[in-house]
Design brief:
By secondary structure, this protein is mainly alpha-helical. The chain contains 2 helices and no strands. It is elongated.
Length: 59
């Protein structure tokens, strides 16, 4: 399979893709950003807690 055939196949497959509407895309974006923020805060709190516990034992 040469490069031209590959790109023709890619073009054909991309025409079959159904792209999300603006409303769906906004909802998905908000979901991803809020999930990432929640996980970041969660691990920051866990890290802070572990640091405080270790400081109690090693000071």
């Amino acid at each position: 399979m040469n490069l031209v055939t590959f790109f023709k196949n890619v073009s054909r497959e991309m025409k079959k893709v159904t792209w999300p509407r603006r409303r769906e895309l906004t909802r998905y974006t908000i979901t991803v950003i809020s999930t990432v923020a929640f996980v970041a805060v969660f691990f920051a709190v866990i890290d802070l807690g572990i640091t405080q516990i270790l400081n109690l034992f090693f000071e």
